[in-house]
Amino acid sequence: MVDGVSYTIARGRTLGVVGESGCGKSMTALALLGLVPKPAHVTGRIVVSGQNLSGIAAGKWPEIRGKRIAMVFQEPMTALNPGMCVGDQIGEVLHLHESLGWKEARERAVEELRLVGIPSPAERAKSYPHQLSGGMRQRVVIAMALACRPDVLIADEPTTALDVTIQAQILELMQRLQDEIGMAVQFISHNLAVVSEIADEVIVMYAGQVVERASAEELFSKPLHPYTQGLIATMPMIDNRQEQLAVIPGVVPHLDGNHKGCRFAGRCHKADSECRALVPALITVEPAHEVACHKARP
Amino acid sequence: MTALLSVKDLTISFPVGRVNLFTGHRRAIHAVQDVSFDIASGETLALVGESGCGKTTAGRAIAGLYKAPKGAISFRGQDILDLPRASRRTVRRAIQMIFQDPFSSLDPRMTVSEILSDPLKVNGIGNAQEIRERVQDLIGQVGLPADTLNRHPHEFSGGQRQRIAIARALAPEPQIVVADEPLSALDVSVQSQVLNLLGALKRQRGLSYLFISHDLAAVHHIADRVAVMYLGRLVEIAGRDALFAAPRHPYTQGLLAAVPRIGHRRRRRSLIEGDLPGPLAIPSGCGFHPRCPLAKDICRRERPELKSHAGDRAHLAACHFAGEAL
Amino acid sequence: MFFLRRLLGMAIVLLAMSFVVYGLIGLMPGDPIDLMVMSNPGITAADADRLRALYSLDEPLVTRYGHWLIAALQGDFGFSRVYAQPVLDIIGPALWQTTKLVALTLVISSILATALGILSALRPGGKIDTLVSFISFAGISLPSFWLALILILTFAVWLGWLPASGMGRPGEEGFLGNARFLILPVTTLVIANIGGVTRYARSALIETLRMDFIRTARAKGAREPRVVLRHGVPNALSSVITVIGMNFGTLFSGALITETMFAQRGLGKTIYDAILGNDYNLALVALLFATFATLIGNLLADLACAWLDPRISVI
Q1: Could you tell me the domains of chain C?
Q2: What pLDDT digit, counting tens, does each position of C254-279 carry?
Q3: Residue ranges of A 53-92 with Cβ closer than 8 A to chain C
Q4: Less CB within 10 Å around the terminal CB: N or C of chain A?
Q5: For residue B6, which of B62, B67, B47 has the smallest C-alpha distance?
């Protein structure tokens, strides 16, 4: 499903992962937590702060999750346990990883709620998820993820389910917390505009592969892969209104194991016989700008 | 320019909770309250706002999906809420609806051909031969091949299903199409295809749209005029360019500031603090005052009227301070 | 508020139930006097009419029901025709016996079924799941009279460990005194009851374990036992309890076969005998008590659900 994806994120930086549904961006995130559902399996290396996690025993994963690598999910309603008050849900992480007693863990949970900007955190800690608004719930999920000050935070479409004014609040919160805690963030989204605002570096995924990687500024001002170019051109822009929007023809292909050539070739206006025969490698075409396209030589 | 559709003081309430033992009444939440706007022939009016603001409820009421809303909805000068049953149907034909989720809005047991001919049969348009031709014509107009007709909805992708839903809405030759979040269930690369299709159909058929959306970029692309709703009320309505360039209501300003844009790297984007109040706890005075950075005493006491402030007569805002310099 | 409404609802159900049952019995051809006439040819038609007037049987059904209801509301449920005793004196011990049977069965089968359901749900399609499924379906499909016979044969006849039937010996009353007599009937009921609840617990837990918050719990670093027991089970349990609450009713009045097989004078057996013996008043009141117990069981189940799931409010 996901094939040959490589990237690094520096401490305190944000990597944006962009792609449409089914491109493998969420699966990549679950792989980082060792949570890829069966029967899929993961090969390759995952290194956090110099420690190689890919070889570790299954029994060691729970020590990593929530402590070294944490995750924020798309749906804050379903991501929280409906039968547990939010203070306990945050306290549980601290109880698990910092061997705090439940009483201390609950006290720390209140502090974490305060950190994510929840008003009257001591009372809110006793609330159940259904008593909170969507924005508040997502703050709780973020507090839970950051309670142990992880090295890496994976945020999988963290604002997609939220209204635009709440989305703005959550994005601001994530940036503030990143300044304070210094974790590396992997920000997964289908929304190019959100990624362009929040990411330092961006990878674009298509059908399970990385097709382009560059700094956010470079990627959005000079996209090189025809898919990235197409994605940006299809977006209506408030700053630059076009009568007619560009389109990417066709749909994402349903891939089987023996696909030949570039996976985007079927929808690409530049594709020729070379593209249909040979898989393009991800190569550096400009400093810090990589692209997997036969036609994107500078 | 006379209005094709005119909505006047539309109010839609839903009873909630239990019957009060003393009064025999139930509490009501006003999903839509005193909403008025016009849509001209060939015009696209966008209704924007966040979840729970009442935009979908208003759209559904206009498409005739609720019984007896209060206020008036007139089509070509005729109040459609007051019509006798028989003549209501002919007017109803003229207003059709496209829904958000193309996966649940199409009957999975019907073929595409049945889905498209059903509204024609219901409205008694044409004989079998004419219906067949009409259906073939429709499927071509939304950019799908003719062999689509014999298949079932589940065989299609989200974008293709939304095209089918559009074709179904167009079948009875409507003059107004209410499109309720038609893009939000679709992938990014498919959204532009549907937006282009809606634009092309509007030009070819002189259609009017009521385009309901929370996606301000899409609204900016497709709308001629934009109406902003907050907690069931209209807070601002203006031509697209005026609204996006010089929003007068602080809520609209906050909404626009919150829209992420490519190439805007910034740290501060939320002008609006806090959460939307629940429908049972609508604040006094101006409903927006608890979240408004400009709120003063008067905002807590008096509800501002929706009216024009300085200059542009077509630009209305419901804010005590909308007339002041921005 | 919810609680008051529930109690009011229960009262209405009991009232409606009493009216329907009273009415159905009253509409049956033949009344107690007819029975007397049949058994005693010496009674003349005039005697019969006088007897009818004496027992107010000549009045319209609704009036009779009214009299009965007023008396019942004052705690007077009338007499049993067959036993010639106040019905409460007969129902009391039967109700107590059935309550013991049902309570033990529910507690044991709920714990066992939940545990088996959890074991199954951990690896759907695995070896344990297959075994548990087999046991569940066996429990569902074995007829209880056959099961009771096998148990009596094994434990009473061959091994001689337990009494074959009955409710206790004189001088051995009390809960513990006749506990030995309860083991076989409770075992029969548990086996018959456990299958459905296990299947239900299994599917409820499998469904819960697919939910997003389970993934969140794993992403937090919770280990699998904690994920299942702390996050999965409590959220799956409320729907299991609803099913257990429904079983309550079936057990209370429907344990007839088991009660008969083990000579347990419980409510089911009492109702059955009363109907066969034309003991109308006993049948009516016993049915009402069974209904009442069922309603209480459902109420308890709902309260337990509300306690488990904060989204449900009972106040």
Answers
A1: 2-73 (no CATH), 87-308 (1.10.3720.10)
A2: 677 788 777 778 888 888 888 887 77
A3: 62-67, 70-71, 73, 75, 78-85, 92
A4: C
A5: B62
